[in-house]
Amino acid sequence: MLEDILSLAQKQAEQAEVYEVRSASTPVSFEANRLKSLETKESHGVALRLVRNGRVGLASATDLRDQRRLVDAALAVAEFGAEARFHLPARADLTDVPVYDQAASDLSIEEMVASGQGIIDAVLRHNPDILCDAGISKSTTEQRTLNSEGGDASYRKTVMSAGISGTLTRGTDILTIYEDTAWCQRLSNIDDLAQRLIHSFELSRETVGISTCACPVVFTPKGVASVFVMSLQLALNGKTVLQGASPLGQRRGEEVLDRRLSLWDDGRVPFAPASGPCDDEGVPTGRTPLIEAGVVRNFIYDLQTAGLAGARSTGNGFRPLGALPSPSYTSLIFSEGDATLEEMIADVKDGVLIDQVMGAWAGNVISGDFSGNIHLGFKIENGRLVGRVKDCMVAGNVFEALGHGIAALGRPAVWEGGTIKLPPLYFGSLPISARG
Asked: How crowded is residue 47: how many other Cβ atoms within 10 Å of its Cβ?
């Protein structure tokens, strides 16, 4: 079928590409400690991208009985489409990247329900007053990209994810803590989510006051993800650079961050949820150094943005079925340092440990300015956690903090959400503001 669509498109276009996706997913959700829903969803669709008279047209369909209609729709869009600045890739030898696990695919709904209820029950045994929401899901995706230049790339992937949030209300104090994980293999550490949640609630038993000040701040990996990652992702995205909005766009080869910090995108990490042998354009994935020892080295590109920038695609062209590809990250990985989280805390005489931040981008995400509520944080006194802080905010600038403010880069780096691997960070001073 794909070959037929491609053949029809080639008769009227200079370049053509057919992208097919089949997926099946089974989400199981729990709300307020009880099973809420379970279902199985299946989808199948095809997108046709073509270039006619130098312009790009795109159309997609889930009903493929009328292939001519799909081609005509893409041709009609091409009359008003953007100028094509890319050449579709020829067939490439793709590296085998393991992202499919039969054990995950075979996981039964009964087993998923039992796992979800199991982590909720573990939390309730610790404290029956906690209200838990949870989710367990599995999905299998098959995709193929076929083009007029001989490119033909396909692979199959499984992803399993699990998450839990717990809410504890004590008078006017409402505390919600969450934990989640995702991987391409059947998860063997789901019970760890409950234990991490319980540990955080234990640390939160006592609340302590805090005053507005600039003080040492330690971020857990989850805290780093909620505050620092989005600005870096935008700044190192080739599309943002082309728009002239990236603060790092004109600084390739310059040292902009702490020399201890390196950052790269890697689409070939075995069983990472965003890994695969190729992107959605059939370009092989790989390891792209973005920051090396504080120096800007590269940006991520798809075919079109690479053509506009006079660069090469980095294998980061991804898309939903009905949209054109755009540069998107696979696995974003930060370098590790030497200090453990416990050693960082022990070094602080008077400061704050931050695990969850809400609304950090009330500032300006493009420029790196952040200002967010410390949703889960703890006061540090003389190297010890003495209680949870409330009604306070943290502020600063991502690039200034990562450039000149790091007191220690931590270890180990851990996965957050299955797509970002990052360590704890310790800053010598950041502004903390408290209510009242």
From this structure: 24
Query: How far apart (Å, rounded) are the C-alpha atoms in residues 43 and 109?
Result: 19
Which 3 state secondary structure label does DSSP give 123? Answer: helix
Residue 416 token pair: 């957050």
List, for residues 120-140, the tens digit of each pLDDT value. 999 999 999 999 999 999 999
DSSP codes, 139-193: EEEEEEEEETTS-EEEEEEEEEEEEEEEEEEETTEEEEEEEEEEESS--S-HHHH
Phi-psi region of 271 (alpha: psi -120 to 50; beta: other; left: phi over 0): left
Beta pairing class for 332-334 and 420-422: parallel
Residue 414's domain comprises 206-436
The values of phi and psi at residue 241, to 5°, are -60, -45
Which domain CATH number covers 152? 3.30.2290.10
Question: How far from 203 is each of 231, 244, 358, CA to CA, in Å?
Answer: 30, 44, 19
Nearest to 398 by CA among 430, 350, 355: 430
Q: Name the domain count of the chain.
A: 2
240 and 380 co-located in one domain: yes
Among residues 201, 235, 253, the one where a domain terminates is: 201
**Span 378-405, pLDDT tens digits:** 999 999 999 999 999 999 999 999 999 9
Residue 141: pLDDT over 80 = yes
What does the block give as tokens for 195? 């234990």
pTM value?
0.94
Instruction: Answer whether residue 363 shows pLDDT above 80.
Output: no
Q: Are 314 and 300 in contact (CB under 8 A)?
A: yes
Let me know whether 228 and 195 are in one domain: no
How far apart are alpha carbons 358 and 272 in whole angstroms?
26
Per-residue pLDDT at 171? 87
- For 39-151, list the strands marked E by DSSP: 41-52, 55-61, 131-147
Largest Cα–Cα distance of the chain, in whole Å?
A: 74
